[in-house]
Each structure stands twice: as C-alpha cells, then as structure tokens.
Amino acid sequence: MGLDQVNLEADVVVASKAPADKVPVAVTSASSTVDNKQEQALQEAPSVQDFIQEKTEEQQLEADLKANVKQTTMDFIKKDFANKGKRPKACFVTLVRNSELNGLLSSIRIVEQRFNAKFKYDWIFLNDEPFSEEFKKRVQEEVSSTVKFGLIPKEHWSYPDYIDQSKAADTRAKMADIIYGGSESYRHMCRYQSGFFWRHPLLDEYSWYWRVEPDTQLYCDINYDVFQWMQDHERCTVTITIHEYEATIPTLWKTSMNFFKEHPEYVSENNLMKFLSGNDGETYNLCHFWSNFEIASLDLWRSPAYRAYFDYLDRAGGFFYERWGDAPVHSIAAALRSQEIRSTTSPTLVPPTHLTTNCPRDMDVLQKQRTVPVTKGTTSHSKRMHAGQNITTLKA
C-alpha cells in the first residue's frame, strides 16, 4: 500500500498513508565543538528570575488542580465539547500482543468495513513487548488510516514496590477456579487499562478513543460518525452495561467508598449512585460499564479526580491481591462524577467479542445497515447474549 514508516522514538513507530513528504520526521542536532556546548549551557543556565517564575507556575498549577477538584466532569472536558461541529480528535486504541495477530486482523477488517473506511480515524496499537515486523506489516495492510505502534513503559506493566509479590502469587493460586483468577498478565492488563493507557504519549493529541479488542464483531454498518455524535451531544462515554463477577472484587466497593468519604469534593452533587447501588451506597449491585466495548473521552481519566482515585486503589493493592477489573473501576469513578445516564437500544452500535452480543430488533435497521442477525449459535456464551441489549451513554 505504499506505506511510509518513521521511527519517532525507540518505542514508537508511525505508519501513514500520507505521501512521504507529508510524514513527520524526527530531527536531532548536536553542537560541533565542546566550546559551543559550554556556551550554550551558560546561556541556558536558569537565572533567579527563572527560578521565581518556575515556582510561580508550580503554585498556579497546584491552584488549578484544586480548582479542578470542584468541577464536574462536564467542566473538565468542556474543551472537547467546544469543538462541536468540527472533526473530533479521536482514535482507536488496542492493547494487543504479537500472538493475537489473527484475532486482531479479524477485528480490524470488520471495523474498517463497517465504520472506519468511511471516517478514517487513526489507530493506535500498544504492547508490553516490541511488535514484530510481520505484525506491523500485516496490520498496516488492513488499516485505511494512520497507524501508530507504541511500547508500554515497563513501570506501567510491572509490580510497584509497595506490592507484596508473594501475597499476590498466593492470591492467584487461591483464585485459580475463577475467571482469569490465576492469571498474572491479566492483572497487569487490568491495572494498565485502569490507570495508564491514557498516559501513553501516543494518545496525547487525542480527546476521544474507541477501544477495540481482538475477535470483535460489528453486526451492522455504522453510517454516522460516532465520535462526532458524542462530541456534539456532549456525551463522555458510550458503552454496554453488564454485571461484574463478585468473587473478583470483594473489597473494591468498600475501598472506593472509603476514598470518596475522605474526598467528598470528588463526588458530583447529582451523581449516579443509584446506578451502582440500590441502598444508597451501602453495597455494590455489580453493575458496570463494560470496558471491552468502550468509546469515551480521554479526559474522563486525565482529570485530577480520577487520577487521585486510581492512585488510592493502586496503593490498596486490589489489582494484585484480588482481581479488580478496569471496567468496575472506570464505572464507579465515572458514575460518581457524572450527572446523567441514558440507556437506549442502539440501532447500529453492536458490542464485540464472544462474551456479550447485541443485535438490533428493528427490521428496517436490519435491512438498511446490512445487519448480520445474531443467534444463540453464534457464541458458546449464550447466557450473556441478549438481542437488543442496552447501550448506555453517560453525560458529564
């Protein structure tokens, strides 16, 4: 396809459909002599005024963060909504390994066919190990837009120094009979998706993302720009709602409520506690927004409130001492910082993978959107498959 690649950093590769003269390049330069370097160092040495300015900027940043605490999610992400009517700064994000190439290619083909061939949004692939050349080549052949490959920093995919790894190993042994309960890598994934994916520098330029997993299916054509709709209708996330496995999160709710009791300033006045609990927060009803199918504002997770919440959970150790998932973590934070929830049967947005499936009921939609009807024979997990399952939108 005539792709051009540029190594921007050791851990980042960008592939673009643009002509070679349009592809950004990294340029480095060095002084030709030691004297030049010394002169440059003297010129760049901070003055007393620079130091005072730096301290002033730090104080202003601290004040801004404190001010942001009092803002609703709407206030924090309103800069995204201010772009109304213009093309959203959006991308697809996929956390994937080289060994999952075939399942990924299947997902790419269906997303391209049903949606992205029309709208050409960038696609970012992240891995805790370097992508192979074959992987990159095969992926680039399928994507119609700009492709970016990124390596996850080791500190984002490893044990922090405050985690007892022996205790974590004991937990995995005890939870071996629970779904993903015995998996170490799954826990790193859940922690990464909860607190780090949105910090990767490849995502810095974007405001919106659509998470795509290997082996995703879209059963209908999507003939409207989902990102544009979210931006213009001031929706911060669109997802599917299901229940969590209780055995994987025995203390997540209590830990979360302890955090919000310590920091009531992080809770919106008109929040969505009723979505999470039927007894005013005493217990968790296990409802959550399923993050395997997640289209959302990146600023939800960039906000000071969410960062503080994640740091608190991370210190508590439940990602490793239990099996806390990113879906309930995202859900609790978003619901308590948001003020409106709308649940609707989407005519075109059809969730992915083999665990949960949705199919529109409207026969007109089935015909116009070239829908492939879903039957119970489609998946071995038919107990979690519902025709016309609710798609949830969350307003800031």
Automatic annotation (TrEMBL):
Name the keywords, alphabetized: Glycosyltransferase, Signal-anchor, Transferase, Transmembrane
InterPro entries reported in the protein's UniProt record? Glyco_trans_15 (IPR002685), Nucleotide-diphossugar_trans (IPR029044)
> What kind of membrane protein is this, topologically?
Single-pass type II membrane protein
Report one GO cellular component.
Answer: Golgi medial cisterna
Q: Which domain of life is it from?
A: Eukaryota
Please tell me where this protein is predominantly located: membrane
Q: Which is one GO molecular function term here?
A: alpha-1,2-mannosyltransferase activity
Region Disordered, residue ranges: 373-396
A biological process (GO) of this protein is:
protein O-linked glycosylation
Location(s), subcellular: Membrane
UniProt family annotation: Belongs to the glycosyltransferase 15 family.
Q: Which PANTHER family match?
A: ALPHA-1,2 MANNOSYLTRANSFERASE KTR1, GLYCOLIPID 2-ALPHA-MANNOSYLTRANSFERASE-RELATED
Q: What is this protein called?
A: Glycosyltransferase family 15 protein
